[in-house]
Input
Amino acid sequence: MNPLIPVHALQGALPLPDWGVIRAAGDDARSFLHGQLTQDTLHLEAGSARLAGYCSVKGRLLASFVVWRRAPEEVFLACSADLLPATLKRLSMFVLRAKCKLTDASGDVALWGLAGDAATVWLGANAPTAVWGRVDMGEAVVIRLPDAGTGTGTSTGTSTSTSTSTDTTSVARYLWAAPAAEPAPALPALDADAWRWLEVHSGVARITAATSEHFVPQMVNLELVGGVNFQKGCFPGQEIVARSQYRGTLKRRAFVVEAGTALAPGQEVFHSADPEQPAGMVALAGSVAGHHSALVELKIAATETGALTAGTASGPLLRLGALPYALPAETP
Output
């Protein structure tokens, strides 16, 4: 744990108004989604949730979801609220004769983010132990999200070097989905920016309106955090996503960066070797106790030497932080 970040700043619960929920109901709900998403939903078990992407025909992520089911014929998809209307409309266009009805369930399902040891203690036996594990807690559903690493990286000065995980500590994160009338979790209030900081340090990119259609899944490490199933068969953009995985060398990945100022999703990042062209884009950003972090999609070559800046070539200097997982060995 970074000693400059108070432990209590990363503990508690908060409502997630920037998330929304789509309900897919009907006999063909799972099979329909199976053909649309990067994840296997046909064999989605009651005791687990899954991360999934929704791609354009060009293989670019339109949205990302946390997916779970309440019944064999009812599936819920949590995504960024600013993408929900367009995503719901697009998915509905392809239902055709499938027995599947898609609706916006955001008004019926309250989503909360829970974090830290305090959340684990409060959940007790209802705390899933495995990442993407899911437990029913009365009418609520608790999903274990990937933990947030709390390392601060290895880069210094104006140069950068590829950083891998060196964390020995992490912060547990959970998604709590309950009927809208359910009482709030009995936990201290967690700051929204602190939750986003934890989201950044989990290394899991949540697609928002600012980043929709910008990334092939591997560019934000989606396959490394369980978001792509390469054995499931076709989905929109599948050929491009598979080609990126199996042919050639990936040239772009997601990295954690630290900054002296707050960053924002969709903000461009520049590299000193080519100041005229963006070297990447911020996918997620958050701050806690004056520490500003972002998950940034970058050219891998831009992480090997030189300087990274935000917004413009003369913008605030960035330094590489630590991902909570290692990038594949074959990645330069």
Remarks:
- The first helix runs from residue 29 to 34.
- The longest strand covers residues 61-71.
- Helices lie at 29-34, 84-93, 116-123, 192-202, 238-246.
- The chain has five helices and 16 strands.
